[in-house]
Amino acid sequence: MWHIIWYALLGLLLAGYLALDGITLGTGLVGRVLARDDAERRTVAAATGPFFLGNEVWLIAAGGIVLGGFPGLESSVISGMYPLVVLAVAALLVREAATQFRRRVPGARWRGFWDGLVLLTCLLLALTWGALAGALLGALPLRGGHLDIDPGLLLRPVPVLSALTAVAVFALHATVFLAVRTEGALAVRASRAAGRLAPVAAGLAVLTAVAAVADGNARDGLLRPLPAALFLLAAVAALLLAPRLAARGRRRAPLVSGFAALAPVPLLGATHYPQALVSGVGPHENLSVAGAAADPSTLGVVGPVVLLVLPVLLAFQAMQWWAFRGKADDRSPAYF
């Protein structure tokens, strides 16, 4: 029973990270295009600044769940995809530094350099998370609990299309957020950009699904295709609906685009469960959720502590978003 609770917590934390930090990733991708001058760039920073560091707590907490609760996943996914994990961690660190250093020295050249690094690292992170989701969707070279990923697997059609979809979805999520969190010309440009990105993101998501059905390796990983199809349809609907809500000034529009950003997590979980990873070698090599979990006695001792801490995390995030619910402008604190 405890392994199910821990697995659900892992999914919740990963989904929360994608929905929340997806705004920051998307802003890094489209911020320089939408913001035409330094005042508007300050407005973009003010809109996302209060949530910047708090969003990453979800990813850190998810990493703790994997290390403490699912040593089987740690020894397979993290070890097997070590270069990808190192790339993601490095991109996160460089993004932090670039965001912090940007305003330390005045001058367009200085800020332009760090803005370029933010764009590059956000693009790398979006591509990495998308490729990882696409690779995990299919059957993996998993044998004896050991996962050995080669670059060829990540360059297959499904991971590549999934990576491109992630870039488009995060960019859409950010434009929807900026459309309702800012005012004036910046908000108008963000709303228009969201409208243009919606069919692109939705089309890429559908194309990824078609490629998954057509590709034998990916199709072998679809143990329960019906839940996958339902989550895909819901995500596509959210992608198309969110810009319309933002154009009408509905402040809850980012919740809709946020669902599209986090959709890969429940999609993967529902498609594979009770397996955590599907092996291309054969069903006997699949890694089940129970098999990847730590000893039940360990989960039972630490589990109540985790369940006590989680409401604090949720309450803090809710308080933070409530405190900064107003629209941002160039006079708002930018923090970075």
Describe this structure in words.
This protein has 336 residues and is mainly alpha-helical. The chain is built from 15 helices and 4 strands. It has helices at 2-34, 38-48, 52-69, 71-80, 82-101, 108-137, 151-154, 157-181, 184-214, 216-220, 225-247, 253-262, 264-272, 289-292, 296-323; strands at 142-143, 146-147, 275-277, 287-288. The strands form 2 sheets. It has a two-stranded antiparallel sheet. A two-stranded antiparallel ribbon has the order 3-4. Helix 1 (2-34) packs antiparallel against helix 3, helix 9 (184-214) packs antiparallel against helix 11 and helix 11 runs antiparallel to helix 13. The chain starts with a helix and ends in a 13-residue tail after the last helix. The mean pLDDT is 86.
Blueprint (SSEs and pairs):
Blueprint: H1 2-34, H2 38-48, H3 52-69, H4 71-80, H5 82-101, H6 108-137, E1 142-143, E2 146-147, H7 151-154, H8 157-181, H9 184-214, H10 216-220, H11 225-247, H12 253-262, H13 264-272, E3 275-277, E4 287-288, H14 289-292, H15 296-323
Antiparallel strand pairs: 1-2, 3-4
